[in-house]
Amino acid sequence: MIDRPMPDFADGAWDVFCDFDGTISENDMIAQIMKRFVPEAGLELMDRVNRHELTVQEGVEQMFARIPSSRFGEVRDFAVTSVRLRQGFPAFVRLCRERGWRLTVVSGGFDFFVEPALAPFRDRLDVVCNRIDASGSHLRVVWSTPCDAACEGGCGLCKPAVLRYRQRPGVRQMLVGDGVTDAKAARVADFVFARDRLRGECDRMGIPSLPFETFDDIVARLADVPRDQGVAR
Ligand SMILES: [Zn+2]
To answer: Into how many domains does the chain fold?
Structure first.
């Protein structure tokens, strides 16, 4: 059990790490692609991942391995047109910029849908995600950041490793996320904004977190801080 105090947001520098699928994007694009292109095998793979018979890495690799490379253009077009950005994301990007906080989008997803969705903000944030190799008969996943020695493995893209690689002296790390792949990164982060399943995970692990539904909630919470703390002092 980790037992960290709630931090003072007004004080000091933060690096912000934000998940994409189910967080910036309202839908999980990998799940959408699965339902559309490999509905039956995909559901079975997802069940096996949820039952911990397969790692996330194995599940995602096996799902894409069932899609012929000849259909990659179709997959890409479907994903790009299906992304819906969660309310308030532009204001959140602006707030990070104003505070001088470095914002990194860490996605277990793929550049072919993450990059087009983030193109309007690309000069104000960093992106860590994966790519697809469509040169063979079927799609092959190329993970950008494999698990490091401190992780038990199986992540695909290892979010806790990304946070560890990017630790800087005197700068705290804030995570914004929603799902199981964010839970391992939450253990590394100093503070978490969590929705959906990550909220309960943070409570169970004793990691300080606040819930959010839209990015407006996060902006309101962070923008309020100096005034609140002024009152408290
Ligand atoms: Zn890992």
So the answer is: 1
Distance 189 CA to ligand 1 centre (A): 14
Cα 11 to middle of ligand 1, angstroms: 30
Residue 15 one-letter amino acid: D
Note the pLDDT of residue 6: 73
Going from the Cα of 145 to the center of ligand 1, the distance in angstroms, rounded, reads: 9
At 4 the pLDDT is 67
Contact 135, 157 (CB under 8 A): no
Tens digits of residue pLDDT in 68-114:
999 999 999 999 999 999 999 999 999 999 999 999 999 999 999 99
CATH no. for residue 184? 3.40.50.1000
For residue 172, name the pLDDT band (cuts at 50, 70, 90): very high
Compute, in angstroms, the gap from residue 226 CA to the centroid of ligand 1.
36
pLDDT, tens digit (0-9, with 9 covering 90-100), for 180-204: 889 999 999 999 999 999 999 999 9
Which residue range forms the structural domain that includes residue 179?
13-27+85-232
Between the CA of 91 and the centroid of ligand 1 the distance, in Å, is 31
| CA–CA separation, 153 and 151 (whole Å) | 5
- 115 Cα: distance to centroid of ligand 1 (angstroms): 23
Amino acid identity of residue 67, one-letter, is I
| Residue 175 in domain | yes
Helix, coil or strand: residue 88: coil
Neighbours of 222 (CB within 10 A): 21
In a domain, 177, yes or no: yes
